[in-house]
Amino acid sequence: AARLDIDVEGFVNTVKEYNAAVQQDVPYNPTVKDGRGTVGITPPKTNWAQPIDTPPYLGYAVTCGISFTFGGVKINTRGQVVTNSQDPIPGLYAAGEMVGGLFYHNYPGGSGLSAGMVFGRLAGTSSGQDAMAMKD
């Protein structure tokens, strides 16, 4: 924990709290949703809860990211975000996977890059034109 710049005391207390919450009376079965969860902690773990009590322990630094989205905002042909009544919201543009309606039930690998290029160029061109028009 210390090597990852994590508060050691807080980490140890969290692990102890988690271990105490594991339902030891429910048999562990990794082949089905076994219902062996935790009780009294948030968020609760619902299946396959195992105490963290057998070394060695390894930790890895991670970061958050979004691989893809299945939703987003609606835009017009200029890349402007529109309201429910299809009116453009002044100064608000969207590109890439923040645009809704691109994917349903599946995500073709690499298509996010294409969406970013196509809608990025569209929104960038439109926003630049609008900014220049405001200048005049």
Provide an overview of this structure:
29% of the residues lie in helices and 7% in strands. With 136 residues, the chain is mainly alpha-helical. The chain folds into two domains: 1-62, no CATH class; 80-135, no CATH class. Strands 1-2 form a two-stranded antiparallel sheet. Strand 1 and strand 2 form a beta hairpin.
**Helix fraction bin:** 25-40%
Q: Say what oligomer this is.
A: single chain
Integer-rounded radius of gyration:
24 Å
Shape: elongated
Strand order of the largest sheet: 1-2
Give the overall pLDDT as a whole number. 90
Number of domains: 2
Strand content: 5-15%
* Uncertain spans: none
Number of strands: 2
Task: Report the end-to-end length measured between terminal Cα atoms.
Answer: 57 Å
Largest sheet: 2 strands, antiparallel
What structural class do helix, strand and pairing data support? mainly alpha
Encode the helix/strand succession as letters: HEEH
Number of helices: 2
Q: What layout of secondary structure does this protein have?
A:
Layout lengths: L7 H14 L58 E3 L5 E6 L17 H25 L1
Antiparallel strand pairs: 1-2
For this entry, give a set of tags.
single chain; 136 residues; 2 helices; 2 strands; 7% strand
